[in-house]
Amino acid sequence: MENDSGFFEKIKEIKVGRYSLYDILIKVLLALLLLIFVPLMFNPQRPLKFSDMKVGSISNRKIVAPFDFFVLKTEQELKAEQDSVLKSVPNYFTYDDSITQQDIKLLRNLLPFLKKALPQYETIENKDEYLKNLSDELNLVFDVNVSPSNLAVAFDILKDKENVTTIESSLKQAEELIKTGVLNRDLTSLTRPRIVVVKNGVEENLDYSQRIDIPRFQKTMENEFLKHFPVNQTLVLEYLFVRSIKPNLIYDEAFSEKAKEEALANISRTKDMVYENELIVDKNIRIDADTYQKLYSLEMAIAERSEREGRWEGFFFSLGRYMLMAAILAIFALYLYSFRPKIFNDNKMLLMITIILLLNFIFAALISQTLDWNNYLIPTTMGSMLLAILIDTGLGFVGTVIIALVLGGLQGGGFDIVLFSVVGGMVAIYSVFQIRNRNQIFKAIIFISGAYFWALLSISLFRYLAFDEMLKSFAFYLFPNAIFSAFFTFMILGVFEKLFDITTDITLLELSDLNHPLLKKLSLEAPGTFHHSMVVGNLAEAAAKAIGANPLLARVGSYYHDIGKMEKPQYFVENQMNAENRHDQLNPNMSALILASHVKNGIELAKKYGIPKRIRDFIPEHHGTNLMSYFYNKAKEMYGEDEVNESDYRYPGPRPQSKETAIVMLADSVEAATRTLNNPTPSKLRAFIEDLVDKRFKEGELDDSDLTFKDLKKIIDAFLPVLYGVFQHRVEYPDQKEKKAVLKTVKSKQEKTTVKNGNSNS
């Protein structure tokens, strides 16, 4: 294991351009997974020379037979002929004379044996022991299992001579049935109507009236006994004379199957012949079922002739399919490399995309290849919705095109499957755009069904297809497809979220619930931090809306960004409630360590409560690598500038990697700093916020977030209305005026404390 670990570490150290060799190998492996297995899933037995010609389509060229070839029967025609032929193929049974003699011996000798034992039974004193010994003897001599108590009932029956005569008559009837033959297979299990009995090498048909299996034999004898005896006596007679009878017509499975195979092999696969230079279809002529079958037969004839003559058409056919798949994958890879570099660099995301595509193709292969169902049942929108929800709508769109190209090309679905994949996929993406709850599954079903109906109606109109046929196709195939796609997507969505630590808007809504255990804990243990987080959430949400970022993500990230303060809430100014500042008793370095530790504590707490990584990123990134300037300056005053290491007073980072975490950084700084302002005017508030944002920008904290200057202006504009609401003055009542002087003194003290703590809220 250590050697394997060392090997992988060495591969990771080898660089090829911007990527490590290990990283490249993973990407190549995922690409090969799709390149190799997807074409194998869709392995048509015919070339695609005339695949653009379907029943109902218009021929775009004149096609003449290049040589003589036979027209193959359709699958339906072959199936009907096979069913017809199989009706005449018999089930073969062999007559076993040894079993017949054994059964007749039982029927002829058992009754006399019991009659002979009756006098001794009547005179013997210990009847129980006698019956037990007699039961054992019957089992040994006749292979009959009957209990002593049942034997006692049998002797009671045999005391009456008339009963003996009746039993003898019934046993003669049973003997005749056995001589005719009793089948060792239930009649209901025989799928073919004819039965032939082979007796001494001679085959004889067994008429319907003569066919009897073990259940029917037993039922016949039971009814015969019930005519003369009550139920309890009939049951005893059955145990004695019927249950031990063995079937003497033994099913010959090997011979029966051989006869079936020979009959099927003799069925001709062809029904007609097309001669060289014969016109198959002219240009601008509609393709009917007969013409389509001729084109299909010509394709198969070309493939067969190429294989027989040792030509390379079969190889080139397979090569072309793999080249097509490679081209489709190359398009997808170029898109990711050029326009989604973060996804292209993330092998975990690439693995998820690969699994989603494979899942879609597996369903398509099962439906169209294995089960041979209608292509309209292929749930192509499933991949579109999963990619849109788990990543973004842009990738969902490109993924939809990739799925459509593969199914239209490799699977041989043609124009129809491409159209339904693209139209249905685009509408499916729209239906789950900004998904907010799992009930949107019904919205997705309605939208996808509508898109399918529109596309099917348009095809039907320009192909002059019957309206009732169109409705049947929609009702039997496309509508169930829409229902299954939506339900299955939402069923497995949670699996992808857990496996790949993806946070969808549905999860964000669940995390935004203020009754979440972690937020509940925050509100109780650090109420000041909780209130601060709510205000930051309002600021971040407004800013995210203004620049087109994810407002829900920004709000939820704000709720959890300071959860680490719960470990030592009293060391953060918003939780001190005018109490003495504990940092006054600590040296600056210790204060900086306590402030920085809430980042690590927050990450650990978030992991403990199962908070997704996308939200955990807000905890370190909203601080970035900011300097705790108050404690840094205090340390310089105390120890001298040369004795103080600036890195000890910076947060560990990383800097914000997304627009949302950058917005929360700015909102956090603005909320904490503006609390020190006294009666701010709009112009004063704007200038104050602009200075804070400009400071973060100049420090380079926003460099990795993709925020533009235009975005920063919009963010400032979005912050202001929220802050105006926070600072809006209320009407002063007389008693308030009297207290104003006292409150002003308290507030002044608060401001000094806040300034002293510096970046403790940042």
Task: Report on the architecture of this protein.
With 762 residues, this protein is mainly alpha-helical. It folds into 3 domains: 2-41 and 315-502, Orthogonal Bundle (Arp2/3 complex 21 kDa subunit ARPC3); 91-258, no CATH class; 526-757, Hypothetical protein af1432 (Orthogonal Bundle), CATH 1.10.3210. 65% of the residues lie in helices and 5% in strands. The chain has 31 helices and 10 strands. The strands form 4 sheets. Strands 7-6-5-8 form a 4-stranded mixed beta sheet. It has a two-stranded antiparallel ribbon with strand order 1-2. The chain has a two-stranded antiparallel ribbon with strand order 3-10. α15 (381-390) packs antiparallel against α16 (393-409).
Q: Give the strand tally.
A: 10
CATH class of the largest domain: Mainly Alpha
Q: What is the percent of helical residues?
A: 55-70%
The structural domain count equals 3
Give the C-alpha Rg.
43 Å
Provide a count of the helices: 31
- How far the N terminus sits from the C terminus, by CA atoms, comes to 45 Å
CATH topology tier name of the largest domain: Hypothetical protein af1432
- Give the strand content: under 5%
Order of strands in the sheet with the most strands?
A: 7-6-5-8
Structural class: mainly alpha
Shape: elongated
Which architecture of the largest domain does the CATH hierarchy give at level 2? Orthogonal Bundle
Major sheet details: 4 strands, mixed
Low-confidence stretches: 729-762
> Can you give the mean pLDDT?
86
